[in-house]
Task: inverse folding
């Protein structure tokens, strides 16, 4: 094939990295799976991870499914009026961020793994599905790219010499193409999203897991 249709994913990654101020970006099928990959990359397991009590349910699911424990903070600074989540927050104490409600020019914090979301009707860049991991580490970028694509390098699977386990978490080219087009007209944004969620600390499925 003369033109590789998957090149559009790399192009979109570079556009997002430039906009957000990171050296690299890794496109994934959703930000939840981005969090999962970040925890796997860092080898975080059997640890206590603190997040806001009011948040999207996929975050505690991911923490638990990577073999860790959730600590809910009911007084977290990202919680507004006890029922709404605003902006981004760290999976404390690790350099992993849920940035699903943030999308600013030069938002990247050096040394961190930040997960932005394009899924759902409320996000700044409305792709229906998708996410991006921001990093300034070449090592992290290389590992995360392969991990999200079955452990593969960017070569034909018939000649790949498989030496890494991965996941089916990559972004589809058609979504990346739409994202690249929408970024042509992106306006600078300085406001975080604010969405109402449940207080998840009342559910034993999250609080008692892995303890």
Result:
């Amino acid at each position: 094939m003369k033109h590789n249709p998957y090149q559009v994913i790399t192009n979109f990654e570079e556009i997002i990295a430039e906009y957000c101020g990171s050296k690299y970006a890794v496109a994934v099928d959703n930000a939840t799976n981005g969090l999962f990959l970040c925890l796997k990359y860092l080898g975080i397991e059997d640890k206590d991870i603190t997040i806001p009590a009011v948040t999207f349910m996929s975050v505690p699911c991911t923490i638990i499914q990577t073999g860790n424990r959730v600590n809910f903070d009911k007084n977290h600074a990202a919680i507004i009026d006890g029922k709404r989540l605003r902006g981004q927050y760290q999976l404390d104490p690790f350099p992993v961020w849920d940035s699903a409600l943030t999308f600013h020019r030069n938002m990247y914090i050096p040394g961190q793994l930040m997960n932005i979301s394009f899924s759902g009707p409320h996000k700044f860049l409305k792709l229906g599905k998708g996410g991006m991991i921001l990093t300034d580490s070449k090592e992290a970028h290389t590992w995360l790219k392969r991990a999200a694509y079955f452990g593969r390098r960017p070569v034909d699977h018939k000649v790949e010499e498989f030496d890494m386990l991965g996941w089916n978490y990559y972004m589809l080219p058609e979504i990346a193409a739409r994202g690249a087009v929408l970024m042509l007209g992106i306006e600078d944004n300085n406001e975080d999203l604010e969405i109402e969620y449940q207080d998840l600390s009342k559910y034993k499925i999250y609080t008692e897991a892995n303890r």
Summary: The beta strands are 24-28, 48-52, 69-73, 79-80, 84-86, 89-90, 96-98, 113-117, 131-135, 194-196. The CA atoms of residues 155 and 161 lie 10 Å apart.
